[in-house]
């Protein structure tokens, strides 16, 4: 069994990363964080806002994602992110803007989806503490 | 016979026109490159999205509880045409071709007794269709303030569409846009986006992998389908952007060339007229001298 896998991170407007030799990838799945390693069972999961970390033998790279989904196969993982930024580009201003947006959505939301938007807002806020510390 | 001065003015004005069309061509060329890059950058996402959706859709197809965005309302009575054109003209047949395709489709649907609704994106399409189909218009999306097309713009349109769909305003939605093939060829295209039809690409087998789904298959699909709609609209908008600039570039190129030809013709005429005037004066002087 191969001990590395293919990792792709694409957003609608650009391709952020394509790495052939990822050792492990930590993904903020909708039902909880999960770590993907080579040979993982095929799986589709949606993402919540959070921090995504990719580890190769030589380096570790983090990205902020605001949602989307991930397709996992034994050979690799493809993350289709709604919006995504490398950790270096994720500043306080960006974060504040995201929170503001999530809050607006939450305030305007229909009561039936209020739980969902509240979770989104909480995830957005948590994203800051993960990314900016 | 125009006077020398008239001709000179004429040549001057055509020269100015040529300068403008030349400048527009160059601007379009620069914008085209950017538009192409944007379309290129968006491709990996769209392709992945497509293959995942195709796999998911085929596994859910035919089930009773399939989401309505995928299975449709079971009727095709009310058809929504989303006509995407440019905000600006002077780009050859670009807008006219899209409008023509939309018009043909609308006529066909009306002849079949269907109800037609039209949503326009871009000013030019609205202007072209307003006279004949104004009564079917249900909305317009203005993108004239948008400098660089972003996914958010597409998402807004998609949300609007899905909102209308959920309210039962239409059964089938088709988008009209132009696929960018090359600078000289843009193909007006109609594509049905609601209910979504994800056919596997030709020659490409969709591997039927048995995925684990988290949270659940239906929930994922419900989450993904609106995204699929937004992605398709985004792709269409980008293709359209590249097509528009390509069409404008070749239109301005031929306009520049035409202006050049016209200047040549006018210059010849100008020289002839000048010669004729000189000859006439000489004849007058000589015959005056002979008369003495």
Automatic annotation (TrEMBL), chain A:
<keyword id="KW-0139">CF(1)</keyword>
<keyword id="KW-0066">ATP synthesis</keyword>
<comment type="subunit">
    <text>F-type ATPases have 2 components, CF(1) - the catalytic core - and CF(0) - the membrane proton channel. CF(1) has five subunits: alpha(3), beta(3), gamma(1), delta(1), epsilon(1). CF(0) has three main subunits: a, b and c.</text>
</comment>
<keyword id="KW-0813">Transport</keyword>
<keyword id="KW-0472">Membrane</keyword>
<keyword id="KW-0406">Ion transport</keyword>
<dbReference type="Pfam" id="PF02823">
    <property type="entry name" value="ATP-synt_DE_N"/>
</dbReference>
<feature type="domain" description="ATP synthase F1 complex delta/epsilon subunit N-terminal">
    <location>
        <begin position="5"/>
        <end position="83"/>
    </location>
</feature>
<comment type="function">
    <text>Produces ATP from ADP in the presence of a proton gradient across the membrane.</text>
</comment>
<protein>
    <recommendedName>
        <fullName>ATP synthase epsilon chain</fullName>
    </recommendedName>
</protein>
<dbReference type="InterPro" id="IPR036771">
    <property type="entry name" value="ATPsynth_dsu/esu_N"/>
</dbReference>
<comment type="similarity">
    <text>Belongs to the ATPase epsilon chain family.</text>
</comment>
<dbReference type="InterPro" id="IPR001469">
    <property type="entry name" value="ATP_synth_F1_dsu/esu"/>
</dbReference>
<dbReference type="InterPro" id="IPR020546">
    <property type="entry name" value="ATP_synth_F1_dsu/esu_N"/>
</dbReference>
<keyword id="KW-0375">Hydrogen ion transport</keyword>
<keyword id="KW-1003">Cell membrane</keyword>
UniProtKB/TrEMBL annotation, chain B:
<dbReference type="InterPro" id="IPR035968">
    <property type="entry name" value="ATP_synth_F1_ATPase_gsu"/>
</dbReference>
<keyword id="KW-1003">Cell membrane</keyword>
<keyword id="KW-0406">Ion transport</keyword>
<dbReference type="Pfam" id="PF00231">
    <property type="entry name" value="ATP-synt"/>
</dbReference>
<keyword id="KW-0139">CF(1)</keyword>
<keyword id="KW-0066">ATP synthesis</keyword>
<keyword id="KW-0813">Transport</keyword>
<dbReference type="InterPro" id="IPR023632">
    <property type="entry name" value="ATP_synth_F1_gsu_CS"/>
</dbReference>
<comment type="subunit">
    <text>F-type ATPases have 2 components, CF(1) - the catalytic core - and CF(0) - the membrane proton channel. CF(1) has five subunits: alpha(3), beta(3), gamma(1), delta(1), epsilon(1). CF(0) has three main subunits: a, b and c.</text>
</comment>
<comment type="similarity">
    <text>Belongs to the ATPase gamma chain family.</text>
</comment>
<protein>
    <recommendedName>
        <fullName>ATP synthase gamma chain</fullName>
    </recommendedName>
</protein>
<keyword id="KW-0375">Hydrogen ion transport</keyword>
<keyword id="KW-0472">Membrane</keyword>
<dbReference type="InterPro" id="IPR000131">
    <property type="entry name" value="ATP_synth_F1_gsu"/>
</dbReference>
<comment type="function">
    <text>Produces ATP from ADP in the presence of a proton gradient across the membrane. The gamma chain is believed to be important in regulating ATPase activity and the flow of protons through the CF(0) complex.</text>
</comment>
């Amino acid at each position: 069994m191969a001990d590395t896998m293919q990792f792709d991170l694409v957003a609608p407007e650009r391709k952020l990363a394509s790495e052939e030799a990822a050792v492990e990838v930590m993904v903020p799945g909708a039902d909880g964080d999960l770590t993907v390693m080579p040979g993982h069972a095929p799986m589709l999961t949606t993402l919540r806002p959070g921090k995504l970390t990719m580890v190769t033998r030589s380096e570790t790279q983090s990205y902020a994602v605001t949602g989307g989904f991930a397709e996992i196969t034994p050979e690799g993982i493809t993350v289709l992110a709604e919006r995504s930024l490398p950790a270096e580009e994720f500043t306080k201003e960006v974060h504040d803007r995201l929170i503001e947006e999530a809050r607006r959505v939450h305030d305007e939301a229909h009561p039936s989806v209020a739980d969902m938007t509240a979770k989104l807002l909480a995830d957005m806020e948590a994203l800051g503490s993960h990314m900016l510390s | 016979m125009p006077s020398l001065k008239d001709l000179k003015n004429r040549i001057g004005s055509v020269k100015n026109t040529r300068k403008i069309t030349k400048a527009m061509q160059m601007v379009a060329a620069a914008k085209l490159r950017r538009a192409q890059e944007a379309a290129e950058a968006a491709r990996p996402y769209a392709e992945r999205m497509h293959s995942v959706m195709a796999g998911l859709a085929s596994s859910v197809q035919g089930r009773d509880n399939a989401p309505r965005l995928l299975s449709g309302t079971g009727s095709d009575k009310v058809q929504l045409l989303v006509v995407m054109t440019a905000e600006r003209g002077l780009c050859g047949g670009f807008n006219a071709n899209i409008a023509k395709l939309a018009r043909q489709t609308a006529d066909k649907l009306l002849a079949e007794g269907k109800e037609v609704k039209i949503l326009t994106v871009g000013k030019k399409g609205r202007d072209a269709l307003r006279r004949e189909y104004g009564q079917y218009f249900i909305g317009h999306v203005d993108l004239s303030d948008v400098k660089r097309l972003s996914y958010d713009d597409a998402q807004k349109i998609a949300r609007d569409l899905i909102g209308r769909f959920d309210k039962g305003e239409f059964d089938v939605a088709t988008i009209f846009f132009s696929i960018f093939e090359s600078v000289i060829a843009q193909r007006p295209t109609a594509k049905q986006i609601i209910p979504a039809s994800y056919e596997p690409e030709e020659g490409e087998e969709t591997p039927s992998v048995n995925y684990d789904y988290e949270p659940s298959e239906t929930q994922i699909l419900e989450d993904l389908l609106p995204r699929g709609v937004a992605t398709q609209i985004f792709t269409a908008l980008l293709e359209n952007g590249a097509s528009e600039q390509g069409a404008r570039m070749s239109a301005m190129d031929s306009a520049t060339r035409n202006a050049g030809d016209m200047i040549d013709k006018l210059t010849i005429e100008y020289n002839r007229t000048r010669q004729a005037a000189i000859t006439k004066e000489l004849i007058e002087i000589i015959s005056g001298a002979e008369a003495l």
